[in-house]
Amino acid sequence: MINIRAASTLRLFVPVRGRPSPEVKWGKAEGEIKETAQIDNTGSYASLVIENVDRYDSGKYTLTAENASGQKSAFISVRVLDSPSPPTNLMVKEITKNSLTLTWEPPLLDGGSKIKHYIVEKRESTRKVYSPVTTCNKMSCKVEPLPEGGIFFFRVLAENEYGVGLPAKTIEPIKISEKPQPPGKVSVVDVTRSTVTLTWEKPEHDGGSRISHYEVELAPEDSDAWSVCASVKALETVVTNLLKGEEYQFRVVAVNDKGRSDPRQLAQSVVVKDLVIQPAVRPQMSTYTVQVGHDLKIEVPVAGHPKPTITWTKDGTVLKQTTRVNVADTAHHTTLTIKDATREDGGMYSINVSNTLGSKDATIEVITLDKPGPPTGPVKLEDISYDGGSPITGYVIERRKRPDTRWMKASFTNIIDTQFTLTGLTEDCVYEFRVIAKNAAGISSRPSQSTGEITAKDEIEAPEATMNSKFKDLIVVHAGETFIIDADYTGKPLPEVIWLKDGKEIDKATPRMEINTTLTHTILTVKDCIRVDGGHFVLKLVNVGGVKIIPVNKRETSRLSWTVVEPKIQAISYKITKLLPGNEYIFRVTAVNKYGVGEPLESEPVIARNPFTTPSAPSTPEASAITKDSMVLTWERPEDNGGAEIEGYILEKRDKDGIRWTKCNKKRLSDLRFRCTGLTEGHSYEFRVSAENAAGIGKPSTPTQYIKACDAIYPPGPPNNPKVTDHSSTTVSLSWSRPIYDGGAQISGYVVEMKEAADDEWIICTPPTALEATIDGLSTGEEYSFRVIAVNDKGKSDAKPLATPVMVKDILVEPIINLLFNTFSVKAGEDLKIDVPFKGRPHPEVSWKKDGQMLKQTTRVSVLTSKTSSKIVIKDATKEDVGKYEITLTNSVGTKTAEMSVIILDKPGPPSNIKVDEVSADFISLSWDPPTYDGGCQINNYVVEKRDTTTTTWQIVSATIARTSIKVSHLTQGTEYQFRVAAENRYGKSPAIDSVAIIAQYPFEPPGSPTNLHVAHATKTGMLVVWGRPASDGGSAVIGYHIECKEQSSILWTKVNRGLLTESHIAGDSGRYDITASNSRGTTKSFINIVVLDRPSAPLGPVELFDITEDSVSLKWLPPACEGGSPITNYIIQKRETTTANWLDVCSAVARCNIKIMKLTTGLEYQFRIRAENRYGISDHIDSPTVTVRLPYSKWSCFAFVFSLIIFLLCFS
């Protein structure tokens, strides 16, 4: 085996003999020899020279010599010490919404050194730079967290002691997403004899990838044979070609580029038949108002199946649709839209909805609000009023607070003006107001009309402002000029207007600055401008509804003005774009709440440039393979890549006799080594290297010491840092690093020597080896010293001893379990792998238990144990795999145990122990116990169904109940029912548990009739009714009695008592009385007729006054409500003047309910009183309103009218 460093020259020289001279051929077992290889074959030797070897030059080289006498072959194994080749078979195993798992296999070429670890890097699809994720020793890696929906490339690089190898990359971009969650609620919109229309809601989560389409599946009732019947992108579809009368189940599946979601099933099956619904139209309001010039939209819900025909009419004629007036119909609404309403659009609109089952109509009134048209003539003069001949001295305001009907004084001072502000009202209460005028004579007018109902509440509207667009840019004003900033503003209540300059309020008293503000407009004027008037002006509007938003500002540091970036930012971060590269900026942010604008916060100056920097310096280069005209330089990557991928390296050299640095490489270097050629023999050189990324070339490394270009003439330096990596009862393992100086020639190997601690003689214990070795055959308990020597072509280095002697004995380590998680979950039907890493010396024995019993391995459940981990694999997981798993590690030092829980995510088991808690005629109460197995997640709800035992059809009672009990109402008395209950979680519905058959009936009977019903005592105003308890209470205690009565001449029964009576007697009036005994089962009646004789009640009012003349008035009233058991014989009428309290008889023999009273005095005010009389007495009285007896006009007013008419005719004659 020949070991050679990468970038060196491989020289193979083989003597060849034979007669005649043989024909010589070179070959390579794995592949072909490089085209650049130099092959020289003569009759006596064969040579193969390959310059600048790399990892792909490793392998077995074959030399074949052949002549007439025969053929001979020789084999030479070459190992090139280099960084590894790319890892192989890089695959993506598992993708979730925020993570991804990569797996790979080792590189085909390990570069002649053991792989230390692997480097995993990622790159966003929109960027060119890879960034490191992690390093790992295993050949798999879970990359998390990743942004949901992100698109990435990944690569993996192997690293050995010679550096980082080539990457293995994912070819296609990978989207971080998973299959979506099930769609939301599925609903039936329409059913016909051959179609079913379905709608559904979007899934709560799309898995991080856009939903591409939905698949609708159907199956016959009581069948699991599902088939796809539709594939759509929308949230609804019409399933066609169904069989009339058949019953189907439906479910919907969401699909994205990662797969299909779990299905969401329709809650109940659908029978395919025509759906028949009578038409209906339900306007939300009967009256709509619209201002002329504005738009009106009236949306009216309609219903009916088959789909009804909808007709709109206006004022009795079919509505004509135009570009301004149109009607749009949907399945559930009809909408009338009127644009730019005119006065002619007002009127009565009718909607007719009709189908084969009938028709329905609705009427809507549209009122257009506009200035009125001209009044219609002629002008009539009526109710001429005046100020009473005395000037108005003030007004009184009265108010009425709803629902109270009384008017109360609202103002307690004399109001002179015709407007007044009322205070002390209660918020959200409804009021009405009216006004009364007073004159100097002290006479009050009649109240004005009411204002109508007004709700006392603030009308709040946040302030808004509009400003000329020129003020958004920088305004330049010359010194001495005047500039004006104005704005229109709105807001309720009227906002406070504040002008700010550079964050400070402008003083209105400033001589050159003037602020003028009206109710809707504000103007800021700055006269005779000077330099200090420049700056940032802000208009601030404040009311209880909020504050006008103040923007976030920026400015370039080379400018004095601030520029608005974004005026409304809700978050606490913001990305600012469209900056000039290389310019320096300062930013400031101002916070705003409803009370105003805070002080600005300024940032430090920042230069707009790339977000990454140039990389740091690589390590100092190390020289090897030194010859008279070349040497190989190697170095390590920079510690900081500046945030961008290293694109290459620049190697420079400087002659000791010169002052300039010159490049060694013409092309950019991507590797971490380079053979520098063209050196002058005997000259000394120093080298440095710089890294380059997208931001540019970074700082150079520290230069090397001066290195002389000459062939190797010295032995190498001693190896570095020898150390013990492991030891046992008979072995010791060592490792070390390369010498700092290789003597100008490649290190050919290393020699390890040892001696017992008590001896002085060192003996070689290994042949020449690489950078590590294991020495075996040692004596247990003995102490040994070790040292390492490097060898090159010129000899051996000085020995490098191990720092301390080593005692040969076993390393004892108690078992250690590195359990990352205590709980593992997997969906039913999927595979579960639980990998438990562990340590221990000696290697521990591993055992597994499930729920306290030894784990039984089957074709589905297996355990794989290695030196560092134990893995349990469960294929096609079922709910039987749920439980507590226990791993136990045992060695001579001790025992370690760890527990973990396995949860199988599946639909739950059935509920248990269903019980009937209560039975009645129209309801049954049920309860049950939750499932013993919840499917690994919370029970969302229970589905309760019922059926009449005479049928096989189940009906859903509730599919959303969260408790473990339910009261099933609206049952039919005497019917036998059976119930079943199923549990449901996010993964599906469990099997159901059935109840026993139960008959809906009362547990007891109605009570018997009350006994011995009689009147114990009677008066003219009432009587005492007494009865006995029923003979039977029906099995439930009597809780009370109902009493009903009717008049002897009537057939209508009315209840005497509102609530239940607990006493067995009651007082009442004339009529037939029903006595009803009640218990919780029902009622029983008994009756008795009673007549009470008494004087009548008062006549009914109000008393109506009419036909009023200058000496008479007519009265009308209604008979009494109760005649007292005897007919009314007559009415008694009295009168009085309002100036006295004495009542005078008018007539006591009035037979009817009206009378004309004569011989009254003109101009006096009267009031009248009426009583009714029967054979048992005279009733209470009823009084009429007051009335003044006079003509509707006066002689003086007639004279004045005639006189005015004469003057008018004379003026025009």
Kindly report the average pLDDT value: 83
**How can the largest sheet be summarized?**
6 strands, antiparallel
Oligomer: single chain
Helix content: under 10%
Strand content: over 45%
Radius of gyration: 53 Å
CATH class of the domain at 813-905: Mainly Beta
CATH superfamily of the domain at 813-905: Immunoglobulins
Number of helices: 1
Structural class: mainly beta
Structure summary, number of beta strands: 103
Return the CATH architecture of the domain at 813-905.
Sandwich
Stretches with pLDDT under 50, minimum 5 residues: 379-385, 550-560
- Shape field: elongated
Gap between N and C termini? 149 Å
Domain Fibronectin type-III: 86-179, 182-275, 363-459, 522-611, 617-712, 718-811, 910-1003, 1099-1192
InterPro entries: FN3_dom (IPR003961), FN3_sf (IPR036116), Ig-like_dom (IPR007110), Ig-like_dom_sf (IPR036179), Ig-like_fold (IPR013783), Ig_I-set (IPR013098), Ig_sub (IPR003599), Ig_sub2 (IPR003598)
GO molecular function: structural constituent of muscle
Organism: Monopterus albus (Swamp eel)
